[in-house]
Amino acid sequence: LNNGLLRTPPMGxxxxxxxxxxxxxxxxxxxxxxxxxxxxxxxxxxxxxxKRLGYEYVNLDDCWEAPKRDAQGRLQPDxxxxxxxxxxxxxxxxxxxxxxxxxSDLGSxxxxxxxxxxxxxxxxxxxxxxxxxxxxxxLDGCFSNSSTKAIGYPKMSLSLNKTGRPIAFSCSWPAYEGxxxxxxxxxxxxxxxxxxxxxxxxxxxxxxxxxxIEWYGDHQDVLQPAAGPGGWNDPDTLIIGDFGLSHEQSKxxxxxxxxxxxxxxxxxxxxxxxxxxxxxxQNPLLIYINQDSLGIQGRRITKSHYFEVWKRPLVDGQYAxxxxxxxxxxxxxxxxxxxxxxxxxxxxAGYKIYNVLDKLxxxxxxxxxxxxSKVAPTGVILMFLRPRC
Length: 389
Ligand code: A2G
Prior knowledge:
By secondary structure, the chain is an alpha/beta fold.
């Protein structure tokens, strides 16, 4: 969407995958969806080095609302869990130098059965969000049909624009239509939204992560050209720092999300995140790749039993290449290639190659020099190539 926003993929924090619809603040005050949770995550983003690296959005997801609209027909937060109101919460987030995102659903109700935004309420809700100081809206798609969505998403895009406040627009639209043409029109989507969820929700498991990665590879001819500055495919949140992934599998997610120019929205507990997970998510070269100014989504260039090679062209003739071992058996497997074989030959003098996630300089390579590495099962080597020209 050409509203001047999200010229690189958004970065920040989202509660959904980790905190779900936990509304039990009585028994679980630290983990329930509440202003307390959001404020503490804003504190962590600002205080623990995240913001400095670009992680700037603190978002709400489902389950922030009261069960009913207010007397004027406006959405309102649950009064017990958000006693200060959303405007005050957004102010707090802004006071930390961060941005604030909110969630609603185009339909009669949200996926968790809180009040939705039906077509009649699009303008009202856009105005409410603007008044509160919202910087990003995710509009989910439960409880509406395809034709309502086809009217509602473009209409909400206009309603947000009419408020005069810059509000980035995240659409779940394609995920509810199977993510592919002819039901999904990626040209229209790019004119309507700043990012869009194409496929299944992530879950805290390698199985789901791998399924999502494969889907983006299998459908890259459709998906890859749709992405660029101002409009991004969204394979859902980063689950590093949660429970389901090994460290190697966590590396796979960050590497692939960087190659895919995907949003870096974490969904973990920033208060208890391990140093190991934090170190991965705060890797400056990884973030540099994800945030590359050309905004070209990478592609899977080969896939065989055990190895997938993914490549993303970057500014100034640089490249990122991920070599993923998709096998679950055995020990780290050797892989050999050359820049030439990877289709990277624009600099005849060759490349300096870095192993991004292990923070190692691998060496200087001419176009036909063999590059070797061992890749752990369900693991990855993410390489950064800088031309020696
Ligand atoms: O509702 C849907 O499943 C969302 N999926 C998920 O991300 C989360 O927001 C959940 C909350 O109830 C999509 O947006 C595709």
